[in-house]
C-alpha cells in the first residue's frame, strides 16, 4: 500500500488530472442531464480548455467521448424514468418534474416540430438552450419508443459535445493560461444559455 501511494505521488500532474478529471466530468454531465443544477455546457467547455493546453493530442478526443457518452446516459435514464411515469396510472415524480420544467408554449412548439421532423428534432433540441426538456416531454407524451429516442439522441449528444468543446478550444486558443481560457469559456457558455430567456422576458415586457 505504501509503495502504491509512493508511485501515485510520483505521477505527472497531467496524468493525475486525467485520472480524476475524466470520471468527474462524466459523473457531473450525467447528473446534469438528470437534474438541471449543473451547467454541463460550461463543464465541457472548461474541460476542453484544460485538454487544449495539455501535451497529449488525444486529450480533446477523450473529453469529447466522455461528454457525449455521459450526456447520452443521462438523457436515456431520464427518458426511461419518464416513460415509467407515462405508463403508470398515477404518473411519477420524475414525469411531474419534467412537466414542471417545460413551459406550455415551449411544449406546444416542440410537439409541432416533432410531428413535422420526427426524432431529428432531438439534435436541435440539444443545441438550443432550454430546448431539450420540452422535446423530451413531447416524445414521452407521444409515446415514442425508447429505441427510436435513443437513435435520435446519439447524434444530438455528439453535436452538443462538439459544440461546447469548440467553445472551449476557442477560449483556450485566445489566452496563454488555462484558467483565463476557462473563465472565457464559462462566460461564453453562460451568455449563450441565458440569452434566449432574457430575450423572451424582454419581448414579454414590450408586449405588456
Written account of the structure:
The protein is 82% helix and 0% strand. With 208 residues, it is an all-alpha fold. The longest helix has 30 residues, at 178-207. The chain is globular. The N and C termini lie far apart (68 Å). The model is unreliable at 1-13 (pLDDT under 50).
Give the secondary structure arrangement, pairings included.
Elements: H1 2-9, H2 13-34, H3 40-52, H4 59-87, H5 93-100, H6 104-117, H7 121-127, H8 132-141, H9 146-174, H10 178-207
Helix pairs in contact: 2-3, 2-4, 3-4, 3-9, 3-10, 4-5, 4-8, 4-9, 6-8, 7-8, 7-9, 9-10
Helix/sheet category: mainly alpha
| H and E order | HHHHHHHHHH
Mean pLDDT: 77
Q: Over the alpha carbons, how many angstroms does the gyration radius reach?
A: 19 Å
Report the total helices.
10
> Mind describing the biggest β-sheet?
none
Strand content: under 5%
Poorly predicted runs: 1-13
User: How widely separated are the two ends?
Assistant: 68 Å
- Helical percent range? over 70%
Short structural description:
This protein is mainly α and 208 residues long. It has helices spanning 2-9, 13-34, 40-52, 59-87, 93-100, 104-117, 121-127, 132-141, 146-174, 178-207.
Provide keyphrases for this structure.
mainly alpha, 82% helix, disordered N terminus
Amino acid at each position: 500500500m505504501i509503495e502504491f501511494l509512493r508511485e501515485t505521488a510520483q505521477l505527472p500532474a497531467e496524468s493525475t488530472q486525467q485520472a480524476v478529471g475524466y470520471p468527474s466530468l462524466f459523473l457531473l454531465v450525467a447528473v446534469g442531464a438528470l437534474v438541471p443544477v449543473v451547467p454541463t455546457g460550461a463543464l465541457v467547455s472548461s474541460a476542453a480548455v484544460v485538454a487544449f493546453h495539455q501535451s497529449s493530442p488525444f486529450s480533446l478526443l477523450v473529453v469529447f467521448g466522455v461528454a457525449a457518452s455521459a450526456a447520452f446516459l443521462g438523457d436515456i435514464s431520464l427518458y426511461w424514468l419518464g416513460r415509467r411515469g407515462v405508463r403508470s396510472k398515477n404518473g411519477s415524480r420524475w414525469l411531474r418534474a419534467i412537466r414542471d420544467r417545460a413551459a406550455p408554449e415551449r411544449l406546444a412548439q416542440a410537439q409541432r416540430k416533432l410531428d413535422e421532423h420526427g426524432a431529428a428534432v432531438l439534435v436541435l433540441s440539444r443545441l438550443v438552450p432550454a430546448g431539450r426538456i420540452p422535446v423530451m416531454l413531447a416524445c414521452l407524451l407521444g409515446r415514442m419508443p425508447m429505441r427510436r429516442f435513443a437513435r435520435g439522441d446519439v447524434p444530438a449528444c455528439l453535436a452538443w459535445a462538439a459544440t461546447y468543446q469548440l467553445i472551449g478550444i476557442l477560449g483556450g486558443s485566445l489566452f496563454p493560461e488555462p484558467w483565463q481560457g476557462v473563465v472565457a469559456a464559462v462566460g461564453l457558455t453562460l451568455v449563450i444559455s441565458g440569452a434566449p430567456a432574457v430575450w423572451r422576458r424582454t419581448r414579454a415586457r414590450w408586449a405588456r
